[in-house]
Structure formats: structure tokens, C-alpha cells
Amino acid sequence: MTVQPVRLFGDPVLRTRADEVVDFDKELHTLVRDLWDTMHEQGGAGLAAPQLGVGLRVFTYRCDGFEGHLINPGWEVVGEQMQDGPEGCLSIPGMTWDCLRHQHVVARGWNMHGDPVEVEGTDLLARCIQHETDHLDGVLFVDRLDAETRKSALREIRHADWFDGQVPVVKESPHPLFGKR
Question: Name one Pfam family in it (predicted).
Fold first, then answer.
């Protein structure tokens, strides 16, 4: 088991767009295993490579009875239904806020062997796919909160025992929510 430390809010790697994976090699297999072990140990529904300090487009997930990993993922919306519900993040430990997400998405990417993968998710799995893909774009879920909730969330984060004092940054996602960012 190779559990790695999770990078916390304020770490610049969490605000940097991750690079595409080009080599499906032993190091990638090790990264996927480290992501899986760390996600499992921390009790997360998903974990993205930047959360371990690795700037590659890879994430693992385990929720709603589904588990796996996606490399170089992209996703598209199915239908127009939205969900607004509690969301948390291993990089913002112990805190959750209601966050608006698409209800149903289909993600496409590759597995660690270079084989194409498609994952269709609703509810929590759809939320997880969107959340982890945002991580790969340097976006955190607090960026998606409405203005009032985000202001309150950033205040709570600044007062958290684990926060290192860096000024919180808000970033827009390249994945719009029907014109809502």
C-alpha cells in the first residue's frame, strides 16, 4: 500500500492545469496505484493526480458501486437536469458545501494500459467525475459555489487549523454549467 500525502487548499499545484498523459508506462501504473491507495485510505469518492502533487490528467473514483480510473478524461452532459447537494474534497478536509453540478454525464478517457474507457454516471458518480476533472483543470469545487456561499467557505477555510495562510484564489472552470460558472 502506497499512501501519499494529499495536497491542501493553497498549494499551487491545485491551481495548475495538469498535462496530458503521453506515456502509458510503469510510472503511470504506480501513480494510479498510489491514487487508489490514498483515496481508499482517506475515505474519498475520488482523487486526482494534482492532489498528490503530480501534474498529470489522471484520477481515480469509487462511488455509487462503481470504481476505476480515467486518464486524459473529458465528459459531456446528458440531459439538462442539475443537482445541488453537499460536496467535499480531500484537499479541503472536513468541510462541505452545497454545489451545483450536472445530474448525468458521460466521461471518456483511457485506462492505465491505454485502452479506451467510457463511464456514464448520475448523482454522486456524475458529481465525482465533474469534481475530479475540475481538479485536472486547476479548479476547486469552492470556485463553483454561489458568491455568498463561496465567501463564507473561504472565510471558514482561512480559519481552519490545517490552512497555511496563503491567500485563497478563485478560478473559473472551462466546463460551464449552462452559462453558470
Answer: Pep_deformylase
pTM: 0.90
Is 159 annotated as ligand-binding?
Answer: no
Among 20, 118, 120, 132, the one annotated catalytic: 132
CA dihedral sign of residues 95, 96, 102, 105: positive
> What are 116-141's pLDDT values in tens digits?
999 999 999 999 999 999 999 999 99
CATH number reported for the structural domain that contains residue 40 in this entry: 3.90.45.10
Number of domains in the chain: 1
Residue 40 annotated as binding? no
Helix (H) / strand (E) containing 93: strand 92-102
What grid cell was written down for 153? 467557505
Predicted confidence (pLDDT) per residue in 11-35, tens digit: 999 999 999 999 999 999 999 999 9
CA atoms within 13 A on the CB side of 137: 20
Collapsed DSSP state (helix, strand, coil) of residue 158 = helix
For the chain, the distance separating the N- and C-terminal CA atoms, rounded to the nearest angstrom, is 38
175 is in an annotated binding site: no
